[in-house]
Design goal:
2 domains, 14 strands, six-stranded antiparallel β-sheet, binds adenosine-5'-triphosphate, alpha/beta, Rossmann fold, globular
Length: 360
């Protein structure tokens, strides 16, 4: 179960890149600035959301081209491949369009087709970063297990934006309109909170059964900003209207949840662990998630510059666990040497100047 026949058109420095004959392990090798991360970013747009750089759509279109871009791939799962794709048309530059089997699809529904997660160098700071960055990381993992999470999040975010708009407006909002919005937020918010709690509990239980080495073992918990019960949420928002109007936004709710991580051995908060320990815990969480979410839908893992920073023993364990997860794995590097111990023969592309050449 994997992606193949991948096409990038006018995406960042890629004019027309084709990646065919993919394998379980796929390596993108090339010098700095060649366009390796750009390929991972393109693949990340085959999932709901803004992709692994969270960039603006306008920044992703190739400079000097017509302002749009397209990404397509065959999703091999089941009997016949399904063509999935996403594109931005030059005449609608702010809108990402998504298709599956030639039919338009809301981006949130891509989660029903495949599950995607990634580790990038920018995530090295995740534990010291904002709660919103950790919440996004958590939500992507939840999506891999519960694809309905994307739709619930979309409903919640839309109603929240509308409530925030009313809270920031000069006139006092119509209470009946607020009742309706808060009801919608409460129903979606309770489902979001439940899905987050279940995913974190499953990850934590999986990780607890693993040894402390070679990847420092994290303990995970949701740090909830609000109750997980729809009635209680609706009540909090109804009672908090005065304070929220004062602040001009909704102060409490699952949109403020955080993911709390400590190192199991020492009990130290992840943000206070060494850089290497933090990276090891992120890898442990990503591997646990891969193990838990594999099977239901094709799982694609994008690992940017992960292998080269590990010692050979950790690398070997990483590769073993990746192979066992059944995920399709994409890894980048400036040279092939760190990938010599892969348990299976990888598909390898050499990248340079936004062009990819398949190596034999
Ligand atoms: N919209 C764009 N149009 C054209 N080129 C772009 C665009 N956005 C980024 N680039 C170019 O893409 C290149 C960076 O590509 P990418 O980040 O994929 O490199 P990389 O191969 O992962 O390198 P590294 O090993 O340094 O991480 C840069 O040269 C950058 O100028």
């Amino acid at each position: 179960m994997s992606l193949d026949r991948i096409r990038l058109a006018d995406f960042r420095n890629h004019v027309a890149t084709r990646l065919e004959g993919t394998a379980r392990f796929n390596l993108l090798i090339g010098p700095n600035g060649a366009g390796k991360t750009n390929v991972l970013e393109a693949l990340s747009l085959l999932a709901p959301g803004r992709g692994l750089r969270r960039a603006q759509l306008g920044d992703m279109a190739r400079e000097g081209a017509h302002g749009g871009f397209a990404i397509g791939a065959d999703l091999i799962s089941g009997i016949s491949p399904v063509r999935i794709g996403t594109a931005v048309r030059p005449d609608a530059p702010g809108r990402r369009q998504v298709q599956a089997s030639g039919a338009p699809l809301p981006a949130a529904r891509l989660a029903e087709w495949l599950s995607m997660s990634w580790l990038t160098p920018a995530m090295d700071r995740l534990f010291a970063d904002s709660a919103s960055a950790r919440r996004r990381f958590l939500d992507r993992m939840v999506l891999g297990i519960d694809p309905g999470h994307a739709a619930n999040s979309a409903i919640y975010d839309k109603a929240l934006r509308e409530r925030n708009r009313l809270m920031g407006a000069d006139e006092r909002p119509d209470p009946r309109w607020l009742d309706a919005l808060e009801r919608e937020m409460a129903d979606a918010g309770a489902k979001i909170a439940k899905a987050r709690a279940e995913t974190v509990a499953a990850l934590d239980a999986h990780i607890a059964a693993l040894p402390d080495a070679p990847f420092a073992r994290p303990k995970l918990a949701v740090d909830p900003a609000a109750p997980a019960d729809a009635e209680a949420l609706a009540e909090i928002w109804r009672k908090g209207r005065g304070a929220d109007r004062g602040a001009g936004r909704t102060l409490v709710g699952p949109h403020r949840d955080d993911l709390a991580v400590v190192m199991a051995g020492s009990g130290r908060a992840a943000a206070e662990c060494s850089t290497g320990e933090q990276k090891a815990m992120l890898i442990a969480i990503t591997l646990a998630h891969a193990a838990l979410s594999a099977g239901a839908r094709p799982l694609v893992l994008l690992l940017d510059e992960v292998a080269a920073h590990l010692d050979p023993d950790r690398r070997a364990v990483l590769y073993e666990r990746l192979a066992a997860s059944g995920a399709q794995v994409w890894m980048t590097g400036t040279e092939t040497e760190p990938f010599a111990s892969l348990p299976e023969r990888p598909a390898v592309w050499h990248l340079s100047g936004g062009a990819a050449e398949r190596l034999p």
